[in-house]
Amino acid sequence: MIKTERILHLKSCRGRKVRVVREHYVRERVPCFSALCQADCDNDGKVLPGDLTHYVVPDVGVVVDYLEILEFRELQGIVFTQTACQAVQHSKGRRQYNRLRNLLKDPRHDCVLFANEFQEYSYCPREKGESQEKWQTRCVYSAAVWYHNHLAGMMDIVMITEDQDAVAQFSSLSSGVYVVSVQDYLSNFWMELHAAHELYNSISQALEEKESEGTEKEYTEHLPSEILEAGIKSGRYIQGVLNVNKHRAQQEALITTQASSNKNTGTFTAALRDVLVYGGKNRNRAVHGDVVVVELLPKSEWRGKVTSLTERQGDEKTGEDEKSKPMPTGYVVGILQRNWRDYVVTFPPREATQSQSRNSQRILAIPWDPRIPKIRISTQQADALQDHRVVVRIDSWESTSLYPNGHSVRVLGRAGELETEIQTILIENFIHVPPFSEAQLKEMPVNSPEKPWKVHPSQVASRRDLRGTHLVFSIDPRGCEDVDDTLSVRTLDGGKLLELGVHIADVTHFVPEGSLTDLEARSRATTYYLADRRYDMLPAVLSADLCSLLGGVDRYAMSVLWELDAHTLEVTKVWYGRTLIRSSYQLHYELAQALLNREDTEVPELAPLSPEEKDAKLAELTQALEMLTHVARHLRAQRDRGGALELEGVEVRAQLDAEKNITALVPRQPLEVHETVAECMIYANHWVARKIQKTFPHQALLRHHPPPRQEFFSQLVDSAKARGFTINTSSNKALADSLDRAVDPEDPLVNRMLRMMATQAMSQALYFSTGAQSQEQYYHYGLALDHYTHFTSPIRRYADMIVHRLLTAAVDLDKGLSPAVALATNKELEETTQHINNKNRAAQRAQKLSIELFQCLYFKERDPQTDPSCVADAAIYAIRDNGVLVFVPQYGVKGPVYLKNRDGEVVTVGQDGRCEWKTGSVKRYSEHISTTCSSGTSTFTLFDHITVRISVQPSRCHADSLNLEIISNKPHKSAESQQPHSQGRSQLVQEVVRQAEEASQQAQERASRGPRLSKEEREFCQSKTPNLYSLLEEIRELALMDVGAAANVCASKTESRLNTDWSSSNRHLKNLS
Amino acid sequence: MAGLELLSDQGYRLDGRKATELRKVQARMGVFAQADGSAYLEQGNTKALAVVYGPHEMRGSRSRTLHDRAVINCQYSMATFSTAERKRRPHGDRKSTEMSLHLKQTFEAAVMTQLYPRSQIDIYVKILQSDGGNYSVCVNAATLAVIDAGIPMRDYVCACTVGFVDETPLADLCYAEESGGVSSLALALLPRGGQIALLQMDARLHQDHLETLIDAAMTACKGVSKVLDEVVRQHLQEVSVLTRE
């Protein structure tokens, strides 16, 4: 090591300039992380492959400004210099720097960090009078030269820079390093990567714009972070996350303060949980989701939230609205952390752009999410991009600018097209699902007719072999292909003991921790189900083949085997471990139930056998099923005593023909066997949770469902009172019982709506790491279990894979083996669970949005005035100041109905129930709302049925929404409404998909790329819940989905898992009753 | 601007060292003829001058005299030009007084004071340039000065600071690291016997990490002791060559 010194000029805390001398040690051996290294560098970790055509060394300016381009996975062999990384850290802040660090850590990206400043020969000290930029460029160049020499000239090194002087200066030096500008580099080496070219253009334009900024101040400057931190500590400022009100995005935003900050500042802020920020000036450039610091305004300027319904498209009403009582109001003084992400925006049509900007290249694009302010983008493609949806990123928001500046990243397509809209939904929910890469697929085992996959002999030795000893079978919906759970039951010890077994597909055997597939699965966290398609978490070779426990083939499994006392059904012994199974029967629910009922049925697996054999086998199977049912009943009763919620419900199942098209919808009989399978899965989850919690008390992944906050039940209790029911919410059991009693014999909808409100009051079930919560908080409210986790669906949930790994480690520990890889610490696990929870929430939101999208597309095709399907029955479930919220059971749509429009007219009911608009006033009471005008008074009460007309409110920039208009206060008396609505949704989705296909075909003729729905995608067209209502409700409350674990089993997997979850939560709802 | 990254993902510190590497140590003994013993020591950019007078009779108040051993009197000061911003008061402030006390305690543990009853040993240390680890540099410089004065010691006293970042102990912190919010620990060691002469830590640290931190500090101190030993031998060689002639 050689010691040198570097001299820095820094600013002291008092603002004076200080000359600081720092030591700087350089050394000869710094790892180069290249596979071609000749000098035996100490390269551990990521290594650049040797078979590339060249390595790229980006200059500091390129890394700082064009990092997004370097993020393309296609660009390989990137050497980031330490100089550049430090420049990013200093000039762009922590967020950008972390992004760069993650890039460097991610094994999927082919890039390394070279510590050039610590290498004796590549380090160059800054010379007197040399500007920082020049020096940095020189450093990077010298690093590039070092690489060239270090690799003995075997690899071409390309340095890319934005500094034209550098290109001129260095390319003349014949050192073997090519120095080119970014643009030349892209066009010479990556001609075909159009996305990169576009991105480059848009970023460089944004940068140019930035230089030509005006100086007029639109906003006050943010305070420096030291002052903010001191202010937060002293309690003068409040820190929180900015939450913009969806319906009044321009005006209202709430700051949700964090619990931790409350603790510090004691009672003062604890009392005021949320702070209102009113108006754009007060919000001071904060964007939805940012962590901001606010200062409170004097009490005299506090205001209340507006509670009346606003017309979505309408201008903000000012002043005269009725206000709730004033709440703490403040203004933003600084921003601690920006949480900018990718936004989807729509380019306005041409004429609008000319009027609003002096320079026609600058466009104010309107984000899809109404909570985000308009973003100023400079582009030359404004004409081409009219009415297109485009992904943009915000670059900066100076105090001189009314709107933030951004640049476009890529174009999604024309607004209103199905494919564009779905992509929009995915991006707005941070769902990133590229096709699996070749490297990932290479890791997968092969199973093809030429090279069939076989059980490995070493695995046979290490696993418990259940193929000969246990009768293993699966019970799934008809036509299911991916079976991830199987069951077995048998008697032991001459009938004194029962052995119950649950065998789950051993996914983690095929997906080792840290492999590319594992990383991808972790980042996806779950399989995403949209209304018309799904995005798998694992490649299809695993999910549909090798991990699917099909009948008659050998498969690896993770098993839980209980030994139960045959009479008391007490658990005497539990065995966990890896096994080898061969499922004997692949049953479906109806068949299993028929066997239980001793009906005469044909089991396909037994068809070729002789009658005597068949009878013997059949008897064996039937006996096993009966035993299983017996055990499940007992388990169920046990949980019921603890206050678990009842599971029952009606589901609809789609019958598929050979082409996987839906031929008919059959209401699923609530068979007991559904519950039996669900119970076994819950039991397995529960016991696995106990095991891993015991072995790893601080780092096990469990799932809990916190009890709901009592105040959330107020709407439910009040509404029920309106109908004369009392709801007891003191415990889960009391709630379930009282909901059960609250049935209006004349209107079954009342009960459903009460359940809906109950579901809304529930908190979400969440994954957590046991080290992060106290033991009392492990409780699962919905299932009434003290420990619970997810273990039974590793194919579609990453949490289950973690649990599988934990269980394997626990079993290894019992055997005295130490786990091969260190387990995640509590902190890491907690981060992972946060990630999974976030992804689950995103999946739910995406699902909900995609369904709303399909609803809109469905109604868009219909003329609301003439088409009878646009008129439907609706029930009132909540009262607002100027209208009511209704729920349309036929389509499962919920929405507002206005009783007063912007012209001051109100709805009046005529003789025959027809409604008209007349001038008058609206008065709101707790249980009803009445309108008064010259011709009389009409009243609308909670739970009243009215008739509404559904039309689509088109919106160019945001998602379309449905508009409900009251046409009569009488229930809609159409015969169709009585028929099972289950078909509504399937038809709806199919209809929309068909329309989209037609549209896309037309579009293709016009030589534009259109969405093509493959057969696979059609396969997942789904439609099986009773109707859209339950669908929407269920999605929102997937939280309750622990039942989903069980549900998963019962659910029709081929059709769609989503369905499963709906049905499960659906049942859950029923249970609440 | 984000906080400095004290330990990069590749294991480099701000100045290019790895976690366990010490700064460059350079030293000279016998820099002044006037004093009984003197030494100059650089550890990276921290530079210290140590001067030893004694053992001699008690000066000043005789009441402090100890009848079985010598009194050690330490004074620590920093030059006004030692820091980036000029210091107002070179010595006598609270920090210097505390440092003097620590030095005194350290050397009471190391010098064989019982050989010189009723006498006094003065150790003066001045920091000429400060770049972190002032205490340890002072101890190391003073050790050399005491040896130069020919006062018997049980062993070299070697000191080093260690900090704890990202679950890794960093040896021999520089100023940028010290001020970057690292919980640091200063340790003075008699390396041969492995006895600790002084251990000082002001920051919060989890108990579980203390052991590793002390181990790292001991290793670092042993490294320092090797260098000091070299310096002493070198010095003796030079002196003996001179005297022989």
UniProtKB/TrEMBL annotation, chain A:
<dbReference type="Pfam" id="PF17215">
    <property type="entry name" value="Rrp44_S1"/>
</dbReference>
<dbReference type="Pfam" id="PF17216">
    <property type="entry name" value="Rrp44_CSD1"/>
</dbReference>
<keyword id="KW-0269">Exonuclease</keyword>
<comment type="similarity">
    <text>Belongs to the RNR ribonuclease family.</text>
</comment>
<keyword id="KW-0540">Nuclease</keyword>
<dbReference type="GO" id="GO:0006402">
    <property type="term" value="P:mRNA catabolic process"/>
</dbReference>
<dbReference type="GO" id="GO:0019899">
    <property type="term" value="F:enzyme binding"/>
</dbReference>
<feature type="compositionally biased region" description="Low complexity">
    <location>
        <begin position="993"/>
        <end position="1005"/>
    </location>
</feature>
<keyword id="KW-0460">Magnesium</keyword>
<dbReference type="Pfam" id="PF00773">
    <property type="entry name" value="RNB"/>
</dbReference>
<keyword id="KW-0378">Hydrolase</keyword>
<feature type="domain" description="RNB">
    <location>
        <begin position="463"/>
        <end position="813"/>
    </location>
</feature>
<keyword id="KW-0963">Cytoplasm</keyword>
<dbReference type="InterPro" id="IPR041505">
    <property type="entry name" value="Dis3_CSD2"/>
</dbReference>
<feature type="compositionally biased region" description="Polar residues">
    <location>
        <begin position="1054"/>
        <end position="1066"/>
    </location>
</feature>
<dbReference type="GO" id="GO:0000177">
    <property type="term" value="C:cytoplasmic exosome (RNase complex)"/>
</dbReference>
<protein>
    <recommendedName>
        <fullName>DIS3-like exonuclease 1</fullName>
        <ecNumber>3.1.13.1</ecNumber>
    </recommendedName>
</protein>
<dbReference type="InterPro" id="IPR022966">
    <property type="entry name" value="RNase_II/R_CS"/>
</dbReference>
<feature type="region of interest" description="Disordered">
    <location>
        <begin position="307"/>
        <end position="328"/>
    </location>
</feature>
<dbReference type="InterPro" id="IPR012340">
    <property type="entry name" value="NA-bd_OB-fold"/>
</dbReference>
<dbReference type="Pfam" id="PF17849">
    <property type="entry name" value="OB_Dis3"/>
</dbReference>
<feature type="region of interest" description="Disordered">
    <location>
        <begin position="1054"/>
        <end position="1073"/>
    </location>
</feature>
TrEMBL record, chain B:
<dbReference type="GO" id="GO:0006364">
    <property type="term" value="P:rRNA processing"/>
</dbReference>
<dbReference type="GO" id="GO:0005654">
    <property type="term" value="C:nucleoplasm"/>
</dbReference>
<feature type="domain" description="Exoribonuclease phosphorolytic">
    <location>
        <begin position="155"/>
        <end position="219"/>
    </location>
</feature>
<dbReference type="GO" id="GO:0071028">
    <property type="term" value="P:nuclear mRNA surveillance"/>
</dbReference>
<dbReference type="InterPro" id="IPR050080">
    <property type="entry name" value="RNase_PH"/>
</dbReference>
<dbReference type="InterPro" id="IPR001247">
    <property type="entry name" value="ExoRNase_PH_dom1"/>
</dbReference>
<dbReference type="GO" id="GO:0000177">
    <property type="term" value="C:cytoplasmic exosome (RNase complex)"/>
</dbReference>
<keyword id="KW-0271">Exosome</keyword>
<protein>
    <recommendedName>
        <fullName>Exosome complex component RRP41</fullName>
    </recommendedName>
</protein>
<keyword id="KW-0539">Nucleus</keyword>
<dbReference type="InterPro" id="IPR015847">
    <property type="entry name" value="ExoRNase_PH_dom2"/>
</dbReference>
<dbReference type="InterPro" id="IPR036345">
    <property type="entry name" value="ExoRNase_PH_dom2_sf"/>
</dbReference>
<dbReference type="GO" id="GO:0071051">
    <property type="term" value="P:poly(A)-dependent snoRNA 3'-end processing"/>
</dbReference>
<dbReference type="Pfam" id="PF01138">
    <property type="entry name" value="RNase_PH"/>
</dbReference>
<keyword id="KW-0694">RNA-binding</keyword>
<comment type="similarity">
    <text>Belongs to the RNase PH family.</text>
</comment>
<dbReference type="Pfam" id="PF03725">
    <property type="entry name" value="RNase_PH_C"/>
</dbReference>
<comment type="subunit">
    <text>Component of the RNA exosome core complex (Exo-9), composed of EXOSC1, EXOSC2, EXOSC3, EXOSC4, EXOSC5, EXOSC6, EXOSC7, EXOSC8 and EXOSC9; within the complex interacts with EXOSC2, EXOSC7 and EXOSC9. The catalytically inactive RNA exosome core complex (Exo-9) associates with the catalytic subunit EXOSC10/RRP6. Exo-9 may associate with DIS3 to form the nucleolar exosome complex, or DIS3L to form the cytoplasmic exosome complex.</text>
</comment>
<dbReference type="GO" id="GO:0003723">
    <property type="term" value="F:RNA binding"/>
</dbReference>
<keyword id="KW-0007">Acetylation</keyword>
<feature type="domain" description="Exoribonuclease phosphorolytic">
    <location>
        <begin position="21"/>
        <end position="152"/>
    </location>
</feature>
<dbReference type="GO" id="GO:0016075">
    <property type="term" value="P:rRNA catabolic process"/>
</dbReference>
